[in-house]
Write a structure and sequence with these properties.
Bound molecules: glyoxylic acid, magnesium ion
Number of strands: 12
Helix content: 40-55%
CATH superfamily of the largest domain: Phosphoenolpyruvate-binding domains
Distance between the termini: 34 Å
Shape: globular
Radius of gyration: 22 Å
CATH architecture of the largest domain: Alpha-Beta Barrel
Strand order of the largest sheet: 1-2-3-4-5-6-9-10
Number of helices: 12
CATH class of the largest domain: Alpha Beta
């Protein structure tokens, strides 16, 4: 093990991350009742330029007025190349109240982008005497962002998670697709002909490199890697498949760009019961092995050792975090959207 310690971001359940356009108060109000782990109120790409000031006002009002239950609250600000961005940060933090947990920064290209937002956020927090520190969610969605991802991931102690923005990433890398994520029939290998001359098409995952690269940068810096949007909102099986392959690579959650995708993301990113049971079995078996002075033993026909213990501990810790949140969710009253000013709750 390296002598360098990784500081982990504050633990937060992030199985589902619901995207809500800040321009639609109707959608924003409904979002409060959906029970997503994280909700980001969007001021960026889902809001037309002329609508930005109104959307900003909506978001501020909604953060103060609605009961967001157990959801962590985030606001996606506009990019650093726009003149909307500074006012997004200043107005939302100054007027958004205590309920805001996170700021999502889109199209991060360099570590200096994060530094610039950190500077602004710090000034506003200090000026208003805000006690709860705002965390950052960064979207990696450009060739430049991907090229600089290691420096970006280490750019501020505020960063909690990296998100793969597949649509903008496709645009930036000039990938030949107009879909938002998902598989691509042109990304395949053709097998050599078999004895009967038949050939098979094997589809690959054109986003594999990007997601795997993001997972490495995130984990090396103690951050949560989160998979971004899946555009085909009517395709539940397609969503599940995309989410599962992201989970297998190490992602902790996925965006829901439609409320119907929240339950799918929760289902996939909840560690399966059988895996948790197996993890607990591994921990028990290794404890017994260590008591006997053994470093590796066989469990159900497979070798396990100290690395298996570390894998199992990750899984059991995640299951505990989720179980704790679920039981406190059950105890708390059902999230209800209210028009009247509600007390903002601290997490
Ligand atoms: C998200 O912002 C994306 O571009 O996919
Ligand atoms: Mg984007």
């Amino acid at each position: 093990m390296t002598f360098t310690q990784i500081t982990q971001a504050p633990p937060r359940i992030n199985r589902s991350e619901l995207a809500v356009p800040g321009s639609s108060m109707k959608f924003v109000e409904k979002a409060a009742q959906r029970g997503a782990d994280v909700i980001f109120l969007d001021l960026e790409d889902s809001v037309a330029p002329d609508d930005k000031p109104r959307a900003r006002k909506n978001v501020i009002k909604a953060l103060n007025a609605f009961n967001w239950g157990q959801s962590a609250m985030s606001v996606r600000i506009n990019g650093l190349d726009t003149h909307y961005m500074y006012r997004d940060v200043v107005d939302v933090i100054e007027q958004g109240g205590d309920r805001l947990d996170l700021i999502m920064i889109p199209k991060v290209g360099t570590a200096a982008d994060v530094y610039a937002v950190d500077m602004l956020v710090t000034q506003v927090e200090d000026a208003i005497g805000r006690k709860k520190r705002i965390g950052f969610e960064l979207i990696i969605e450009s060739a430049m962002g991907m090229a600089n991802i290691d420096a970006i991931a280490a750019a501020s102690p505020r960063i909690e998670s990296l998100h793969f923005g597949v649509a903008d990433y496709a645009a930036s890398t000039m990938a030949r697709t107009t879909a938002i994520g998902g598989p691509n029939p042109d990304y395949l290998v053709l097998t050599d002909p078999d004895k009967s001359g038949d050939r098979e098409e094997h589809w690959g995952d054109m986003w594999h490199y990007a997601v795997a690269r993001m997972v490495v940068a995130a984990r090396a810096n103690g951050l949560r890697p989160i998979d971004g949007p899946f555009g085909n909102i009517g395709d539940a099986d397609g969503f599940r498949a995309q989410a599962r392959r992201a989970a297998v690579l190490g992602c902790e959650g996925k965006w829901a760009i439609h409320p119907g995708q929240i339950a799918l993301a929760t289902e996939v990113f909840d560690p399966p019961k059988a895996e948790i049971a197996r993890a607990k079995k591994i921990l028990k078996a290794m404890k017994q092995a260590q008591a006997q002075g053994l470093g590796a033993v066989s469990l159900d026909g497979r070798m396990i050792d100290a690395a298996s213990v570390r894998q199992a501990e990750v899984l059991v810790a995640k299951a505990k975090l989720i179980a704790g949140a679920t039981s406190s969710k059950k105890k708390s009253t059902k999230p209800k959207a209210k028009k009247a000013k509600a007390k903002s709750k601290k997490r």
